[in-house]
């Protein structure tokens, strides 16, 4: 009888070890990728896509030789900062004011010259970044694009 109990105990021990081994293997199968992910796969940083934020259009009076001219200007700001839209909305009055001052110092001939378009965009970028910085706003602007410019 002792021999029978001994073989039953051994059988139960083997079955318990087998079940424990199987349960551990199943658990590692489910949890394994999560546990080994930091060690096996390099973590890729998400690609930051540039966003474009259109500004309200400007209609300004430009001094001319004989009579005043008018300019319609539509601009878009390019940035990789997804939070810039709220900054641009809050800072809209100071941005518009600084751009109005900048363009009011230009003559009709300067603005009408197509070769000056890139330098005007660069100047507007510098002006906007400066105004944002002076007023304690984030100034993560990559580029200023003129999407429409009509002189009359």
TrEMBL record:
Subcellular location, record wording: Cell inner membrane; Cell membrane
KW Nucleotide-binding (keyword) present: no
Protein purpose: Controls the rotational direction of flagella during chemotaxis.
Protein family: Belongs to the FliL family.
Higher taxonomy: Bacteria, Pseudomonadati, Pseudomonadota, Gammaproteobacteria, Alteromonadales
Protein name: Flagellar protein FliL
Cell cycle in keyword set: no
Membrane topology recorded in Swiss-Prot or TrEMBL: Single-pass membrane protein
Organism expressing this protein natively: Shewanella algidipiscicola
